UniProtKB/TrEMBL annotation:
This is LexA-binding, inner membrane-associated hydrolase. Keywords: Membrane, Transmembrane, Transmembrane helix. The chain crosses the membrane at residues 21-38, 50-69, 76-95, 125-143, 150-172.
Length: 179
């Protein structure tokens, strides 16, 4: 899934009873697994590549979640749960661009037979399903408090850019993006 879709999904799923400031922890957790992908894009695989593995690791976030639950750190629970939700939706939808989601147990990426963007791996269908899921999540956010309405607008604008990029790859075979 695209990063804005992950953010909308996490906020819709975890933000119903959000207190003031919780939204940032939820959005941060949804962003963390992809954060170093952006760094890797500009800096190369090297150190950024190891950080991609660390920040996409189920064991890392599971330990963080268990520790946060044990110490009653509500916002860290939201951050870890949001990151785990991100990874749960990445696992089935990354074919050739999979991550090592079980690092440090293994550095082997699990490659799914389907992709959210790659037309060679049913990306047209799954990319459109992602768009529907994202639209539903944005609608849920819009129906909530003002802060989540603002988030819905911002995430909607960000997702629109990602969707144009997806359409370029999946349907036109070219890179349609601002970057």
């Amino acid at each position: 899934m695209n990063t804005p879709a992950h953010m909308a999904l996490s906020l819709a799923a975890l933000g119903r009873r959000a207190r003031k400031g919780d939204i940032w922890w939820i959005l941060g957790g949804a962003l963390l697994p992809d954060l170093f992908l952006y760094a890797e894009h500009f800096l190369g695989r090297g150190t950024a590549g190891l950080l991609v593995d660390v920040f996409n690791s189920v064991p890392v976030y599971a330990v963080l979640l268990i520790g946060a639950l044990a110490t009653n750190r509500r916002r860290v629970v939201l951050l870890a749960a949001s990151a785990l939700l991100h990874i749960a939706f990445d696992l089935p939808f990354h074919a050739g661009d999979a991550h090592a989601h079980f690092w440090p147990i293994t550095s082997q990426p699990w490659q799914s037979p389907v992709s959210f963007w790659d037309a060679d791996h049913h990306g047209r269908l799954f990319g459109l399903l992602e768009a529907v899921l994202t639209a539903v999540c944005l609608w849920v956010l819009w129906s909530r408090k003002k802060a989540q309405r603002v988030a819905a607008v911002v995430l909607g604008i960000l997702y629109l850019n990602a969707f144009v990029h997806f359409v370029g790859h999946a349907f036109a075979g070219s890179h349609w993006a601002l970057w």
